[in-house]
Amino acid sequence: MVTQQSSLVKKGLRAGGTGGNSGRRGEKSCVTPVRWRPPSQTCETMGASSRAMSLAPMRPEGLAVPACVLHVFESFGCGAFLLDCEQQLLFLNPTGVDCLGDGLMMRGKRVAATDRESDVRLQSLIGAALNSTDVTCGSTSVWVRRDSKLPLTVHIVRFGEEARPALKEASLLLVAFDPERCYPPPPDMLTDVFGLTPAEANVAVGIVEGRHLADIAADRGVKTGTVRAYSKTAFAKTGTRGQAELAVLLTRLAYLTMAPKQKP
C-alpha cells in the first residue's frame, strides 16, 4: 500500500482516476491532469504532503469535484488546500505544494504559516470559519508574512453542509495568492480590451514587469523616444496618467490571466 500511494503522489491529482490506469476505459477526465512538482521542504513535510495527495482510498468517480476545484485555482496560479472539519489537510494542488516552505508549512496534518504572528491570525480565522453558525458560505482573508518577499494572501472559504459530500467531506478551502507569481496580461488581451497596437501592448507589458523604457527599447531595437511615445499612447487608450497607474490597472487584469502552461 505504501508503494502504491507513493506512485500515486508522484503522478499527481487526476479527475476520473487515481493517477494510474485504474479508471474505466474510454472515460475522459473533465479536467486536465495536473503534474506533480516535488516541493522544496523537509522529509517530514513531504510525508505529510504525500499523505494528503494520496488518492488510493478513493473510488475514481469520487475525485471529479475536488479535482476540478483544485485545478481551477491551479490554472490561475493559486495554491489551493482542502481541509476537513478537524482542520486536517485532505488535498492540495501543485502550486499549493510550492507554497509549503515559502510562507506556509505543514504542522502535523494541518496547514500553518511559517511566520508566528501570521500563523496566529491564520489559525484563528480557520477556527472561526469552522465554528461559525452562519448558514451562508462566507470567506475571509489573512496576510502571511515571508522573509524578503511580498506576503502571501490566504483566502479562507467555508463550504456549506450540502457541498461537503461531493468534496470528500472538505469543510474549508484555503486559496493562497502569491503576488510574486503574478503573470502580466498577454499583449493580445490588451489589444482586444484597449485597442493597443502590438508594439504598444508589448511596451505596456514591459512597464508592468517593472522594466525601464531604455531596456524595453534596447530589446526591441528602437530608440527610447519611440518607446516613450508608445507608452504615452498606451496611457491615453487605457485612461491612465503614467506608468504607476498603468501598472496598477494591468496588475488587476493579471489576476484574471491564466497561468502559462509549464513546459514538460
Q: What features would you describe in this structure?
A:
With 264 residues, this protein is an alpha+beta fold. The protein folds into two domains: 180 residues, Beta-Lactamase (2-Layer Sandwich); 68 residues, Winged helix-like DNA-binding domain superfamily/Winged helix DNA-binding domain (Arc Repressor Mutant, subunit A), CATH 1.10.10. The protein has ten helices and seven strands. A five-stranded antiparallel sheet has the order 2-1-7-6-5, with helices on both faces. It has a two-stranded antiparallel sheet with strand order 3-4. A hairpin with a 2-residue loop joins strand 3 and strand 4. Helix 7 crosses helix 9, helix 7 packs across helix 10 and helix 8 packs across helix 9. The N terminus is likely disordered.
Descriptors:
41% helix; 2 domains; two-stranded antiparallel sheet; elongated; disordered N terminus; single chain; Beta-Lactamase; 10 helices; 264 residues; 5-stranded antiparallel beta sheet; alpha+beta; Arc Repressor Mutant, subunit A
